[in-house]
């Protein structure tokens, strides 16, 4: 920032450039420190008055529209649902220039009384940064969110799950999640051609955006989610037995509901995604090294991913592949 200069009158003046108007602004004070402080405060809290004449709804919608080709379809759909369904009409219709800390706090409090802590956190983390960008003068750091406590679940043994879905129309989907940690979106994106011999490549996802299924090639949840895994013969046989281009024709909701219904009937309250956690627990139980487990399940960061691919495509990786496959194969064969 520019340094204040002493005027003939004895006061100090500092000039700063205002990017919003494209003009310079002058700030005068009795001391150099005061003049520079005024200028710094102006730059810190400068707000484009053109934006403050917009409503919360308008700036949030603009944020979504400007990122429609950058964010994933799932993220765009989630943000649109937050804007359309979760935020109150009164809050969305409030002009930015009329917003106050109390109005925002009241909206957060309303959300806390209606939704789970996790949903509240996701919702607030969507709209708060957008508001903060346009109203930097508001003190928003003190807004408190409910704590998200981890859920404690008791998972059934893998053998129990395998037995429940033996011969079921969703047996393959369950095995892919249970034995290999595939996400529901990854399973839906699998094509028969992704299996070469006993190597299965996960390179796309299929997600639901509204009532439409969207396929994204070479775009799994993260970069490390695009991966190849060795599958056991009994899984490869089930994949080859499926007809059609895609391995499954079930929607995301159909997979979720059918799995939950079968498990609930057997006395278990777990979701389809929990199979991924069970898979991770099995690898921990078998002593599979962390970096291989992360690669196999697609959990690593980009940096970790590079290190993993440099060191695990070897005889050692084949040994761990066989170890995990043998574990599930024995269970599968025992339950015949």
Largest sheet: 3 strands, antiparallel
The first-level CATH class name of the largest domain: Mainly Alpha
Radius of gyration: 27 Å
Measure the end-to-end span: 76 Å
Q: If you consult CATH, what is the topology of the largest domain? A: hpI Integrase, Chain A
State the low-pLDDT regions, or none.
Answer: 302-313
Can you tell me the overall shape? elongated
What is the CATH homology-level superfamily of the largest domain? Intergrase catalytic core
* Helix and strand element order: EEEHHHHHHHHHHEEEEEHHHHHH
Q: Please, what is the oligomeric state?
A: single chain
Structural class: mainly alpha
What can you see in these coordinates?
By secondary structure, the chain is mainly alpha-helical. It folds into 3 domains: 5-46, no CATH class; 52-134, DNA polymerase, domain 1 (Orthogonal Bundle); 158-334, Intergrase catalytic core (hpI Integrase, Chain A), CATH 1.10.443. Helix content is 51%, strand content 11%. It has a 3-stranded antiparallel β-sheet. The protein has a 3-stranded antiparallel β-sheet with strand order 4-5-8. Strand 2 and strand 3 (23-29) form a beta hairpin. Helix 3 packs antiparallel against helix 4 and helix 9 (171-180) crosses helix 13.
